[in-house]
Amino acid sequence: MTEFASGAGRIGVITFPGTLDDVDAARAVRLAGAEAVPLWHADADLKGVDAIVVPGGFSYGDYMRAGAIASFAPVMQSVIDAARSGTPVLGICNGFQILCEAGLLPGALTRNVGLHFVCRDQWLRVENTDSAWTSRFEPGAEILVPLKSGEGRYVAGEAVLDELTAENRIAFSYAGDNPNGSMRSIAGITSADGRVVGLMPHPEHAVEALTGPSDDGLGLFYSVLDAVLAKA
């Protein structure tokens, strides 16, 4: 994949109380060649970033529902406004839950089938390559990234599922088995404009072949830098 010069874009990474993967997300941003800009949950200022990552973890201890409290944090209203104005936003694991709770993506993430926490390397199939975060992949490509969640089962009404399918808004699906019982094996989805993507597995943990399980996750961060530079 084509690499970018350091500082090719500024990508904000949000930290909530209980966030675990903000450091990893910032590292992935830097490895892709962008500047990682820390954003604080209680601060509505997005610092003029070009894109935003809502990382994984257990924001606010997953009280009520995973992502529910975080969706009301001051920073999230700014994220909602920015997303609706075209700023690319990526939600990973708990970030995916937050984006659904905030209404930026449809559906919800519920307890895994069997009620077990799933932690393993997972193959995903790339279903949509037209979004701001997936353009570097080939349609149908399979990528290997870690999955670690207890509430990763994607659910939505049949009408929503049909709409996501008809509009090619399923970004990633689980290849092979379905580890958490997600409806239609959905691992990630996009907004109608393709600027907002949420997925349950962790691309930020698959950015170096040495530490593994692959460097496939970098494709998401390269993709958004393509989108950012095309807009500049």
From TrEMBL:
<keyword id="KW-0067">ATP-binding</keyword>
<comment type="pathway">
    <text>Purine metabolism; IMP biosynthesis via de novo pathway; 5-amino-1-(5-phospho-D-ribosyl)imidazole from N(2)-formyl-N(1)-(5-phospho-D-ribosyl)glycinamide: step 1/2.</text>
</comment>
<keyword id="KW-0547">Nucleotide-binding</keyword>
<protein>
    <recommendedName>
        <fullName>Phosphoribosylformylglycinamidine synthase subunit PurQ</fullName>
        <ecNumber>6.3.5.3</ecNumber>
        <ecNumber>3.5.1.2</ecNumber>
    </recommendedName>
</protein>
<keyword id="KW-0436">Ligase</keyword>
<dbReference type="GO" id="GO:0004359">
    <property type="term" value="F:glutaminase activity"/>
</dbReference>
<dbReference type="GO" id="GO:0004642">
    <property type="term" value="F:phosphoribosylformylglycinamidine synthase activity"/>
</dbReference>
<feature type="active site" description="Nucleophile">
    <location>
        <position position="93"/>
    </location>
</feature>
<comment type="function">
    <text>Part of the phosphoribosylformylglycinamidine synthase complex involved in the purines biosynthetic pathway. Catalyzes the ATP-dependent conversion of formylglycinamide ribonucleotide (FGAR) and glutamine to yield formylglycinamidine ribonucleotide (FGAM) and glutamate. The FGAM synthase complex is composed of three subunits. PurQ produces an ammonia molecule by converting glutamine to glutamate. PurL transfers the ammonia molecule to FGAR to form FGAM in an ATP-dependent manner.</text>
</comment>
<feature type="active site">
    <location>
        <position position="202"/>
    </location>
</feature>
<dbReference type="GO" id="GO:0006189">
    <property type="term" value="P:'de novo' IMP biosynthetic process"/>
</dbReference>
<feature type="active site">
    <location>
        <position position="204"/>
    </location>
</feature>
<keyword id="KW-0658">Purine biosynthesis</keyword>
<dbReference type="InterPro" id="IPR010075">
    <property type="entry name" value="PRibForGlyAmidine_synth_PurQ"/>
</dbReference>
<dbReference type="GO" id="GO:0005524">
    <property type="term" value="F:ATP binding"/>
</dbReference>
<dbReference type="GO" id="GO:0005737">
    <property type="term" value="C:cytoplasm"/>
</dbReference>
<keyword id="KW-0963">Cytoplasm</keyword>
<comment type="subunit">
    <text>Part of the FGAM synthase complex composed of 1 PurL, 1 PurQ and 2 PurS subunits.</text>
</comment>
<dbReference type="Pfam" id="PF13507">
    <property type="entry name" value="GATase_5"/>
</dbReference>
<keyword id="KW-0315">Glutamine amidotransferase</keyword>
<dbReference type="InterPro" id="IPR029062">
    <property type="entry name" value="Class_I_gatase-like"/>
</dbReference>
<keyword id="KW-0378">Hydrolase</keyword>
